Amino acid sequence: MIGAGYVGLVSAACFSEFGWKVACTDKDAEKIEQLRGGHVPIYEPRLEELLQRNLRMERISFSTELAPAVGEADLVFLAVGTPMRRGDGHADLSFVFRAVEELAPHLKGFTVIATKSTVPVGTSREIERRLRLLRPDADFAVCSNPEFLREGSAIYDFTHPDRVLVGCDEERAQALMERLYKPLTLRNAPVLFVSRESAELAKYTANAFLAMKISFINEIADLCEAVGADVQEVATAIGADGRIGNKFLHPGPGYGGSCFPKDVAALIRTAREARSPLSLVEQVQTVNTERKIAMAGRIERALGGPLAGKTVAVLGLAFKPDTDDVREAPSLTLIPMLQERGATVRGYDPHARENAEALLPGVVWCISALEAAEQADVTVVVTEWNELRALNLDSLRASMRGNVLVDLRNVYLPAQARAAGFTYAGIGR
After folding, report:
1. 195-429 placed in CATH 3.40.50.720
2. Do 415 and 294 contact (CB within 8 A), yes or no?
3. Three-state SS for 65?
4. Residue 10 and residue 154 in contact, taking contact as beta carbons nearer than 8 Å
5. Among 149, 186, 201, 353, fewest CB within 10 Å belongs to which?
6. Per residue, what are the HEC states of 353-374?
7. Domain coordinates of the chain in residue numbers?
């Protein structure tokens, strides 16, 4: 496993749990030392427990050295970053191609190279082309094996997948991938073998469709507010339709994270280059950007006046609960806008503070939701952590100077919030 980031680490730990021997490599020596000691540098439920168990059983190892790991491997996964490239929105494949150059000299015997990283259509064939030039003597095949893991429930998603998708057009490679995922097929998990182009495009398409559902329900939420409907009731009604489904119909301040923003942008770029533009997906991107920007104005309206001189408690910084990931999180757009309007921001998140601190200067950091709310004029729920759902609203109200609660995730029932003395503003209610 080349890359001990989020995808590589979760995949390596789960493959070792299946009983396979996994060597995980990364250039970050400090991270590798942490992992060797059984400590996970990211927050993901159950991951540390899984890692420690397989370290004890000697089924997983960590190293900064690529050569021995690749030389002994039947299968090499590429799980390096593919961030959004500046200027054009395309995926930056420099880390992928650098890894290919570094692994090429060490291939021995028949080896499958599989991309776990999210990569644009045609990347697998480009990897194969480059490897043929670097090692014309090598016996290998290149596959696409995209991941469909949700941060916060990645272990469950890996071990109980809706499907495993493999883009492959070589019989020996398919046989090896079938063997790799046999522990899942014994649980009746479907393993789908498709073309490499289809696998690469399916990953982007899935994320773009889910992003579209989020943006769709956010716009419906605004309409609900305008006409007096309740978006929760509307979402429940349409979600009961099997053709639509109830997932990703939760209104909020816009989507964020490491996947949706960059994957939507990359898909748009791919479509433009193929001269087959995706106008619907382009609008999803626009709606989401505007959504994040609009949240500061929503708070100001709930407050009934300007934010200058006011104190705002922001509860939740991660882009979603059960992760410490703040990449493209709505909080990164919202908090600077509150500060620009003259507000003092007091912030709290159970796990994301360390990642957020460097990105959000000027925030007063707190160790609990109640501490963040002390003397606040308005409290804003940005991430729907379970501990916030269990928060005593009477205690929250007593901590504050003001009485405005802006619930950007519809965590609380409006009647309960009002009974606690709040002027309550949800989304689409």
Report:
1. yes
2. no
3. coil
4. yes
5. 186
6. HHHHHCCCCCCEECCCHHHHCC
7. 6-194, 195-429
Q: Based on the number of CB atoms within 10 Å of its own CB, is 326 exposed (0-12), middle (13-18) or buried (19 or more)?
A: buried
pTM above 0.90, yes or no: yes
Alpha carbons 41 and 35: distance in angstroms, whole number: 8
Domains 6-194 and 195-429 belong to one CATH topology: yes
Helices and strands (DSSP H and E) totals, the chain: 19, 13
H or E element in which residue 167 lies:
strand 164-167
What amino acid is encoded at 344 in this protein? T
Among 14, 168, 259, 366, the active-site one is 259
| 338-392 per-position pLDDT tens digit | 999 999 999 999 999 999 999 999 999 999 999 999 999 999 999 999 999 999 9
Q: Are 96 and 127 in contact (CB under 8 A)?
A: yes
Q: Is 168 a catalytic residue?
A: no
Inter-residue contact 413 to 386 (CB < 8 Å): no
Signed CA dihedral, 298, 304, 305, 311: sign only: negative
What is the four-CA torsion angle of 297, 303, 304, 306, rounded to 10 degrees?
A: -60
Average pLDDT over residues 316-328: 96
Cα distance between residue 103 and residue 117, in whole Å: 16
* Relative orientation angle of helices 47-56 and 6-17, to the nearest 10 degrees: 50
At 42, the amino acid letter reads I
Q: Count the residues in the chain.
A: 429
Chain centroid, CA 87 distance in Å: 22
20 vs 54: CA distance, rounded Å = 10
Measured over all CA atoms, what is the biggest interatomic distance in the chain, rounded to whole angstroms?
74
Q: What is the per-residue pLDDT across 217-269, written as a single tens digit (0 to 9) for each?
A: 999 999 999 999 999 999 999 999 999 999 999 999 999 998 999 999 999 99
Let me know: does 387 contact 318? Beta carbons within 8 Å.
no
What CATH architecture is 6-194?
A: 3-Layer(aba) Sandwich (3.40)
